[in-house]
Design goal:
The protein has 115 residues and is mainly beta. The chain is 0% helix and 57% strand. Strands 2, 4, 5, 6, 9, 10 and 11 form a seven-stranded mixed beta sheet that branches. A four-stranded antiparallel beta sheet has the order 1-3-8-7, with no helix packed on it. The radius of gyration is 13 Å and the shape is globular.
Length: 115
């Protein structure tokens, strides 16, 4: 069973930056897309950014221009560079990988942006 492990979350002041990582336990074949979601306290999980293979990136309006999604296939790792962070970016961030047959979720990493 493939496992996804997020890291890089933490506490940062508004205007600061964080880089999240999502490492897969093994190479995943037939990946259709990969991306990041987040869930604020008491809110629904929302989509943040996505890569549609091979290299087609899309972003939620709320993060476009501030966040950058990328990947390193050699390391089985996906990244989310988050700049100019705002308090409303606070939440648990989850990575997601979708293949032809199924999808995988990471366990999440907490991001807290203070005012």
């Amino acid at each position: 069973q493939v496992q996804l492990v997020e890291s890089g979350g933490g506490l940062v002041q508004a205007g600061g930056s964080l880089r999240l990582s999502c490492a897969a336990s093994e190479t995943i074949s037939r990946v259709n897309s990969m991306g990041w979601y987040r869930q604020a306290p008491g809110q629904q999980r929302e989509w943040v950014a996505r890569i549609i293979t091979p290299v087609f990136t899309i972003y939620a309006d709320s993060v476009r221009g501030r966040f950058t999604i990328s990947r390193d296939n050699a390391k089985n790792t996906m990244y989310l560079q988050m700049n100019s962070l705002k308090p409303e970016d606070t939440g648990v961030y989850y990575c997601r990988v979708t293949t032809d047959l199924q999808g995988y979720w990471g366990q999440g990493t907490q991001v807290t942006v203070s005012s």
